[in-house]
Amino acid sequence: MGELIKLVRNFLSCYPNRKTICSQDNICKKGHADTYSNGIQTGLCVAYNSTYKTCQVRAWCPVESKSTPEPAILASAENFTVLIKNTIHFAAFGFTRKNILPEYNVTCKYNKVDAPRCPIFRLGDILSEAGESFSQVAILGGIVGIEINWKCDLDPWAFSCHPQYSFRRLDDKAVDDSLYPGLSFRFAKHYKGSDQKEWRTLIKAYGIRFDIQVYGTGGKFQFLELVIFIGSYLSYFGLATVLLDLLISQYYKCCCSPNSGQKYYDEQKYKEIQGPNILRSCVDLKFVSFVDQNDIIMVDKKLRKSLQKTKGHHIKREKLTTSELFTRMVHPTAIDIEPSPPSKKYLNKASDSPGWCQCLKCHKEKELENQLCCRSIKGECITDSDMFKKLVLDKHTLVYILQYNDPLLKTHSLDNEKLVNCAEQQYIRWRFGSNTDIMVFSKVPSCCKFEIRNLLDSNIQETSVDAKALSSSDASQKPLLKHQR
């Protein structure tokens, strides 16, 4: 479709405008071609009409017209048909498919309802599916897109792989006329006439271009891909907890009491473990407890100076109720135990205490790990407390504990070393708790060691509870048991 124009090269004056109006020849530039002109200036200023003079140009005459023939020259092309051959290949699955299906023959024509997979298309139907009129588009031309979309399920039990066709116009039909809407191109044939003048035949062709666009997706079940997908999907659940923690912390910052809500959330989510789970092969590991501090101190490095002056990590002490404390340390009894007075031999002398001692009752030690006091700063020694004397130093209490653990143990078979070990274990349970990992590496202060070793200087005596004491003990416990029921 198009129009044919025969032109001859000749001289003509330009249409008057700001750049072409002139009064004399020197204003016109020979060889200059203006964008809005139809040719090349000759350098002469000639009369356009009785009012204006314009620069003369050498151009093809007559000047090209922008008008197009209506109706379109080849209106019958609306009934032309086109066969589209398309092949899609899924390299990952080694599968190839053509759009020409065996159930369709050469006589079929595409119809959205009756034959949606026929590859033969009528041009008028293509424009109609795109929402356009063939007779209108054919005048100025246009660009129409034919989309072939493959959605393939390649699993044997649910195989499906067929093309779906859709149509839409790609060019903008609402542009200004000065921008030459539609689709057109020009080509010319040049020759000379009998008068030796140069002629040309200019053909302005208007047409409809069809752009075929192919899209395809194909899938097939693969167990490995399923496992990877599930793993990546589950990872988002881990991010969800982090996001919730962030949102909760940000929310409680805006409340009137920001610490209470966040603290309650942390207590419900996290469980506090009293002390770490320690391997027993850690040679350099030591635990220290000072009477003037609430935390246990963990020292996990080789000592360069006294254990008293070595800094470590603070661990929260295990919290026990009063009943739990006596259940773990001393079995409940109504016997009134009188503490044994400390020996005068090991009474502290301030002048003999080493520099690392803070209670003025420690003795000199050669090994660095034994250079440990019961306090971190100067003050009263723990050995002067009533609880230390009752739980750690009293022989009757120690014998009672040993017999509680071994009911068949006879007092005459006890030696001083057993009492000392029992006293040190009593001190460790009292000050460090019942965590076995911590108890193994716990250190007893020098002042406490010497008070405990004082037991070796006394001869062990058989400890027996007479019937009168037992009866009084039972009598004192009965109301307690009755109350517990």
From TrEMBL:
GO molecular-function term, one example from the UniProt record: purinergic nucleotide receptor activity
- Pfam families hit by this protein: P2RX7_C, P2X_receptor
Q: Its GO CC terms?
A: plasma membrane; postsynapse
**PROSITE patterns reported in the protein's UniProt record:** P2X_RECEPTOR (PS01212)
Which reaction is recorded as catalysed by this protein? Answer: Ca(2+)(in) = Ca(2+)(out)
Which InterPro entries is this protein grouped with? P2RX7_C, P2X_extracellular_dom_sf, P2X_purnocptor, P2X_receptor, P2X_RECEPTOR_CS
Q: Which domain of life is it from?
A: Eukaryota
A biological-process GO annotation: calcium ion transmembrane transport
Membrane topology (UniProt)? Multi-pass membrane protein
The listed locations are: Cell membrane; Membrane
Q: Which UniProt keywords apply?
A: Cell membrane, Disulfide bond, Glycoprotein, Ion channel, Ion transport, Ligand-gated ion channel, Membrane, Receptor, Transmembrane, Transmembrane helix, Transport
For the P2X purinoreceptor 7 intracellular domain, which residue ranges apply? 287-455
Does the record's keyword annotation contain Nucleotidyltransferase? no
Q: What is its main location?
A: membrane
Q: Which family does it belong to?
A: Belongs to the P2X receptor family.
What is the protein's known function?
Receptor for ATP that acts as a ligand-gated ion channel.
What is this protein's record name? P2X purinoceptor
Q: Which organism is it from?
A: Engystomops pustulosus
